[in-house]
Amino acid sequence: MKDQKIRYGMAFRKWIARGSLAAGFLWAVFFSYYGIRDFIPDVIRIPKGQEETFDFHLPIVGEVESEGLEVFGNQSPAVEEGRVNIDLNDGFSLRSKERGSYSISCKLFGLIQLKDVAVEVVEPKRIAPCGEPVGIYVKTDGVMVIGTGTVNGIDGMNYAPAENLVKSGDYVKTVDGEVVGDKESLMAKVGESGGAPLVLGIMRDGELIYQRIRPVQTSEREYKLGIWVRDDLAGIGTLTFCDEAGNYGALGHPVSDIDTGIKVELEEGTLYEAQVEGITKGERGDPGEISGMIAYQGQYRLGSVEENTNTGIYGKLEKLPEEAAKGGYCPAAMKQEVRTGEAQVISSVSGERKAYSISVTRLDYNSENKGIVFRVTDPELLGLTGGIVQGMSGSPIVQDGKVIGAVTHVFVQDAAKGYGVFIENMLHPNSDS
Length: 433
Description:
Blueprint: H1 2-39, E1 43-47, E2 52-54, E3 60-65, E4 70-73, E5 78-80, E6 83-87, E7 92-95, E8 100-108, E9 112-122, E10 126-148, E11 151-152, E12 158-159, E13 171-175, E14 178-179, H2 183-192, E15 198-204, E16 207-213, E17 216-219, E18 222-224, E19 227-242, E20 247-250, E21 266-280, E22 289-294, E23 301-305, E24 307-309, E25 312-316, E26 330-331, E27 341-347, E28 354-363, E29 372-376, H3 379-385, E30 396-399, E31 402-411, E32 414-422, H4 423-427
Parallel strand pairs: 1-9
Antiparallel strand pairs: 2-7, 3-6, 3-8, 4-7, 5-6, 8-9, 10-13, 10-19, 10-21, 10-26, 11-12, 13-14, 13-15, 15-16, 17-18, 19-20, 20-25, 21-22, 21-23, 24-25, 27-28, 27-30, 28-29, 29-32, 30-31, 31-32
């Protein structure tokens, strides 16, 4: 009986061991699947007429649309008319003489469907890497709600009339059917209400909804809704690039509300000249910042702010800052041209436009505005700022004579490290990548 129990025990342990190995294998396959899937770009862009080489070193077979798209390298015969197979474990090249959209269907080991990669043929772009500080003023599209709270009524009681009815990030567009374009207009409507309920037209997540709220009388002639609002924002950022037609991109990330962190819905905006007045060095746990002076007078206006996107702000320049285009125009790199290793960030943080050395340490092709991870290696910049500080967002990054991206964020725990957005993403801000 004892021997039988020992045999059963040994068999059970073997079963557990085999089960653990199987489970470990399945987990390895699972993480390999998603790890490889995330490593492959969602979108590949190639300049029209240029041959672009890719080398993923992954056990993947890709089925490529070949009609109108030339494929070079390790392709096998066509699997059907207009499509060929390529091995993503080896290098391959793509080229097209015309703009257009194509796709690569990627399969792990040639068997397991991973994803479809969009291939876009785009016009080659030459831009000037600027690196100049600019003042940014934007007006919100409606009155932005940044929070709600209690108000003390004339009867001495506390009330929260807007609680659970409006929330941070809402935009008040109308009151009783009448458009309110700024917070003064909203306050006037509330003051005129006499305490009668108001119907607020609120834009929330792209949908217009209506909420009925009764203002609270707080004094003999004053009524309040218990909401904190904002209708404009201003700050300093960095001009990333401009092209020969006067189009520009800046910041590399959206203009967001300082209290809520929510991207601002833009009605209109203006770019102004700005000067760096002082620098608070970045330290562990404190990213530091640039303080500056913005000249809001008309003669210092640089241009318009027309778009606020996850990869930066965009618009048209009426004039260039004096130092902005001193480096001339150079090619904008596609993601596949960016490599780890030495690069430069261009900034006027010292009061003079300079190129500072950095090292690109990691690349994430699918990140919207944190695809480039880098470390500042330049002793001068480290001595001046500690690395990356607030206000440097938008500083262009150059590598091998091409603009590859722009600074977007700093590592709060290490000011010498930062994130950057691929310039390809800034040049295609309305795409999904």
